Fold:
Amino acid sequence: MEEEGEIPEKLRVGVCSTVGVLYLLASIIALTINGLLLFVIFKDPLKCFRRPFAVLITGLATTDFLVGAIGDTTSAKNEFYCVKNEDGETYFDWIMDYFIDNSATVIVLALSVDRLIAVAFPIYYRCSVKKTHSAVTVLAIWVYCLAFSLLQLSDIPEAIYDAIDVHIHITFALSANGVIYFMIYYIIRKRRNLFPGEELSGQKAEKHLRNLKREKEFAYTAFLILLALVFTQIPFLVMIKIEANCESCVETSWYFVYKKFANFLLCVSSIANPILYGWRVKQFRNSFMAIFCRSRLDQADLEMSQTTQPTNEIRN
Structure:
């Protein structure tokens, strides 16, 4: 942690207390919306979450819930220590911070790969990819990220560890996601051209178009999750770059303020994610309505949500 002795006391107290309150608010919001989403998925009133993609979404929502329960609260605690010009960070804080943040990043990458396979190889995906595969993937990601976070307790120099972490879990992950979504966009655009509007005359073509529409919706949702992750992590990357190339900047007041808010932005994706993949997807909205506002759920939407599940996916 950088020395903060040259930071004006009023600025330090104001910024740290403000960011601490923001962390507490973020914690409440993340716990509420992710907890509600997990509850809807668990109840699954319309039986529409029996898909590999939904398992990955559950893993991401669980991780985001942990961000609110542990990550945001410990960050708020550290900011209130900052108000007193004290360092309240512990090894537990560091380990959980790396574990939760990296888990969210890697699961988003897994979501991107899942959508690429679903769009590029739809028949293989529907017949071969099971919910158990997604569940094992999420568990493997959690184990990997926990093991990586525990490496901080080893003799690896902090500078080398941080460099590896940034390059693997931010630079590589964001680049890989960018390439994947370019491929998804290219495949969807090319495939839609195979069925122009004037040729949609048969039931087979209509079914194919419905599948493409559903695949595009899920792919676009995952892309928005990636976009939220990019905008929340870019300020952090800039912060890392400043620390590496401008030692004198680290002691300035503007950098102190920037660093506090750049770190805070990392938790915003845990609030944005459930809104993006929960409320944008019709099955999620209909399931919520079926539990809490059943009288307002349109019967046609109810029937559609219950019948859009392919038979082979129900057996998974």
Q: What stands out?
A: The first helix runs from residue 9 to 43. Confidence is low (pLDDT under 50) at residues 1-5, 307-316.
